[in-house]
Design brief:
By secondary structure, this protein is an alpha+beta fold. The chain is built from 5 helices and 4 strands. The strands form 2 sheets. Strands 1-2 form a two-stranded parallel sheet. Strands 3-4 form a two-stranded antiparallel sheet.
Length: 137
């Protein structure tokens, strides 16, 4: 959490950019989440990404994948499945790998299986006996 006693048009933006730069030096493989409705931070996030820094801007804590509950994870994944730009896994093992990648490999095995069961429950997918993933979207 970064707060600043400074005021000015871009005071927080500049302080935050500096803090993330310092944090990157301390943890070069960290993932930095900026919580703000201010779209001005998108330029900062884009700059970080072009320099191989993992970063994203979110409007609220509930948009941060690793902080989502099962229902939020399922909704997030279904939204991604509905995007035409997302490659869909053909086998369960690949689907598990993709889900783990989405959530920064932070899901426990029970959370991962619970998420897949949630996708099945909302009829977004089916898993065939051959472990083939069938998309219902």
């Amino acid at each position: 959490m970064v707060e600043t006693g400074c005021s000015g048009k871009n005071a927080l933006d500049l302080v935050l950019a500096s803090c993330v730069g310092e944090a990157k030096n301390a943890d070069p493989h960290g993932y930095f989440h900026i919580l703000s409705k201010d779209k001005d931070f998108d330029a900062l996030v884009a700059h970080y990404k072009t320099n191989d820094l993992l970063a994203a801007r979110h409007k609220s804590f509930s948009e941060i994948p690793v902080l989502m509950n099962k229902a939020e994870r399922v909704k997030f994944i279904v939204t991604r499945f509905q995007s035409k730009q997302v490659t869909r896994a053909k086998k369960r093992a690949k689907l598990e790998s993709q889900i783990q990648a989405l959530f920064g490999k932070a899901l426990s095995e029970p959370e991962l299986q619970d998420t897949i069961n949630g996708l099945i429950a909302v009829k977004a997918i089916e898993i065939a006996a051959t472990d083939e993933v069938i998309y219902k979207l």
